Amino acid sequence: MSRVSLAVRPIGAAEHLAFLRAQRSVNFLQTPAWGRVKTEWRSESLGWYDGGRLVGAGLVLHRAVPRLERYTLAYLPWGPVIDWTGEIGAWLDPLAAYLEAHGAFAIRLAPPVRTNSWTAAQVKEGVADPDSTRLTQLPGRADPVGARVTSRLEDAGWLPRSPEDGFGAGQPQFTFELPLTGQTEDDLLRGMNQLWRRNIRKAAKEGVEVTVGADLKAFHDLYVHTAERDRFTPRPLRYFETMVAAMSAEDPERIRLYLAHHRGDLVAAAILVRVGAHAWYAYGASSTEKREVRGSNACQWAMIRDALAAGCDVYDLRGITPTLDVDDPHVGLVQFKVGVGGQAVRYAGEWDLPLRPMVYRAFDLYLRRRGSRRRRARA
User: Fold this and answer.
1) Domain region containing 98
2) Which of 76, 80, 232, 316 could cross-link 280 (Cys pair, CB 3.0–4.6 Å)?
3) CATH number of the domain that residue 277 is part of
């Protein structure tokens, strides 16, 4: 595709959604509905045109600079939806030109391309090896598309933003994914470790019932309980109400709430999001009491089975840190997700392109100072 043939201009939500529906898989953070969820950002849909044909699309979230409201950071989480296997300058140059002309001081994007992956067996061996402390120390499998994309971004002046632990201000660089293509339920169970299979059987034996429901208040109460126990800051109920309303309006099958009950008590809950052939475990919650009935495992197994039945290619358990160090508190999450089988995946991460360097530096300093204040507040 010629570099000069592509033009970027705004598109309506209906046109944007129609383009996404023609794709095999798109991250839910690139749907028009996500712009309605992120109410603290201003959103717009952009399209790439080759002549009169729409060939790419992106959801852009704009955030203004404090005290310089006419300038915005233009953020495309897990996007844009373009052909990343081709010459990326043909796609990103017109994007930069459009956004700079409309007041952006920088662009931040997270290409949905993999750079490396490691099997569950490799991760398990790495955790058991005292000489291995990070995923990136393991051989794994490199993806040539991801390597080429990151090299081209760096050559074009884009700046990598992903920190060592893989979690920045935006999206995680490392995820854990369970491939579903060509699998049966029995195949998936065989791919899990013994503990996961035992816990799934335990939940069934104890009479845990998992249903798809709509009681967001019950989910949120359990989610707040989980946040207090695990020491993270919970999102308000209103956030989840907005999320469910926006996504359901766009597609009735886009988002589901799973509730696991044991003898009338809610013991676990989870939210599943699906776009095309990709399903995500988006949020989860569990009770401290009755943990022995394994409601969380029952929820996960129900979501995996439903994703498989829907014809999904992958069930995505989302972010992990790349640690293999048994003394790192984050390694427990890695071990939990590794238990389902599948693979750990490293993506290209988030990248910034400063369009107005002075404003960008001021914004970066503001973020650093705010992060420092938050760390002091937590200490």
Assistant:
1) 3-110+350-378
2) 316
3) 3.40.630.30
Q: What confidence category does residue 165 fall into, taking pLDDT thresholds of 50, 70 and 90?
A: low
Number of domains in the chain: 2
Are residue 39 and residue 186 in the same domain, yes or no? no
Question: How confident is the model over 96-115, as pLDDT tens digits?
Answer: 999 999 999 999 999 999 99
Co-location of 134 and 265 in the same domain: yes
List Cβ<8 Å contacts ≥24 apart for 19-26.
19/47, 19/54, 19/57, 19/81, 20/57, 20/81, 20/275, 20/276, 21/276, 23/81, 23/276, 24/276, 24/277, 24/313, 25/275, 25/276, 25/277, 25/278, 25/313, 25/314, 26/81, 26/275, 26/276, 26/278
pTM score over 0.85:
yes
What pLDDT score was predicted for residue 163? Answer: 67
